[in-house]
Amino acid sequence: MAKIKILILTANPQNTNALRLGEEVRNIEAELERAHNRDCFELVSQWAVRVNDLTRALLKYNPHIVHFSGHGGGEHGLALENDAGNTQLVSTKGLTQLFELVRNKVKCVFLNACYSKVQAEAIHQHIDCLIGMSKAIGDRAAIQFAGQFYQALAAGKSFLFAYEAATAGLDLSGSHESTTPVLLTRNEDEDPFGILQTKSETSPEITQPPMPAPQSQSIGNITISGNSNAFTNVQSGGDVNLTRSQNQEQASNSDLEAALAAIANLKQNIAATEDLNPIEKATVEVPISMLETELQKPQPDKSLIDQAIAALQKSLNGVVTLAEPVAKVATLVAKAWGGLP
Question: Which structural domains are found in the chain, ordered by start?
Fold first, then answer.
C-alpha cells in the first residue's frame, strides 16, 4: 500500500511573534513514530513557506494531508512569508481555489493557526476534512492538539474520533482551549486511509499529559521596559513580588475586577490602534487570553503569567499608544494576585 503522505507547511515571518513550530513538527513526528502503523506514513516538512512555495509543494509531494502551522488573521488570510522574510497574507479565496485543484488527492487540511476557521469553512467546499481555529490559540495547546490528532489517526481511527481524542486530551491536561479547534468533515469512515490490516474494536490508549507540579504563585521582576519612545519601567521601588502561599486568601473582588477591566481596556485599545496589522493583533490576543484565564483561577499558574507578561512586552514594544495600558495591566495583575496595598 502506498504511504499516507503528510505535508507540513510552516511560516513564522520575522515581523511576527516567534512560534514553537519546531516543537510542533517534532511532536507530530514522535507520535507517528510511536504508532503501530508508523510505516504507513511519510512526513514531509517545508519551512518559511512563501506563496509560490505553497503551490510548488502541493504539486511536488502530492500529499493526502496538508498541515499548516503559523499565524492567521481571520478574514485577512493566513500569514506566509515574502522574499524578505516578512508577512505576506494569502487570501481565503486564493487558498480555496488552490485546494479545489487538488481535491481528488487531499483528504484533510489542518490549519493550526489563530482564527483559521474562516479559511477552513471555505476550503471545506472541496476537501472532505478541515480543521481550523475559531479564535486565538496558545502554542502549548496547538502543539498538544496536533500531536494527539495524528496519534489517533495513525491508529486507524476516523477524522471525528481523532479530533475528539485530541480535544479530550486538552481537557485532561487542564487546558481551557479545547473548544478552539473546529472540525468540518463529510468523511465519517473508520480508518479513512485503510491503513489497518484487521479492524480493531478497541480504542487506542490516549496518553494523558502530565499535570503541572504545584508551583508557588509568584512573579518576580515584572517589568515593562524599552526605549524612551516605548515602554518604561513600571516599578518604582524594586521588583513587583507576587508571592502567594496556599494559605493566603484570594485577592479581593475589587482588585480582580480592576485587573480584568484593565485587560478589557487594553483589548479595546489594541482593536482600535492602527499601529498593529491584523496578524499582530491576532497574535497578541493569545497572551491576553492567557492572563484572563489565569486571573480567574483559584491558583493561577505562575509560569503562564510570566509567559503572558513577557509576550505582551515583546509584542507591543514600540507601540507608544499602548505603553500606558500595558503598564496598568502589569501593575493591577501584581496587585490582584500579590495582595499589594
Answer: 4-185 (3.40.50.1460), 214-341 (no CATH)
